Amino acid sequence: MKEYILIMRILLIEDEQKLAESLMQGLKQSGFVVDHLAEGVPAIKRISLYRNEYDVIILDLMLPDTDGHTVCKEVRDNGVTIPILVLTALGETEDKVSLLRSGADDYMVKPFAFSELVARLQALLRRPDETVPNVLSVGNFTLNTATHKIFFFEQELPLTLKEFMLLEYFMRHPNQVIARDDVIDHAWNFDFASLSNTVDVHVKNLRKKIGPNGNKIIKTVRGVGYQFVE
Fold it and tell me: How far apart are the C-alpha atoms of 171 and 155, rounded to whole Å?
């Protein structure tokens, strides 16, 4: 029995033909619709033109015409917020912090189990199951879960999925000290012990997008986690 009810469309950017064919076959059997490109530059154009057509992007870090860092940065600079999962080889993961800072939401090291890939895709697209208000207004922030938009002083913030999930979680717990483990469970649901500052990187990106007062609005509580101050 298939696990998916909604059809999700994936853009796979991978130049290794055998791996790409294997991933496409497995993803299609799992209920996904998959488009495939083998180079980064055409992928940037495709994503910019059809940003509303894809639910998630699977991106190989090393491509024949460019690299995953460049692809991530360019699509994020263009205001694209589609979740991006980067595939890397073992020797390429040393620069994973830079990878996250360039706009990736998650990464996987080759070789990997296909079941884990599907689980990570599910985690990237997961929304809360409980009944909660569609529109949140906290301080000068207004968040709409139906339209997936966040406004700060009536100015829309172009957030990635992870940043959106983090800010939504913070807004649902204003002025509370939130443990790092709770943040990880909400936004990732995976054991990220291999990269303990994953959350810090995404929070730093979120603060930067909020503006000069980002550090005052999202405070770091040393040894515990974070506090979103109204």
Answer: 17
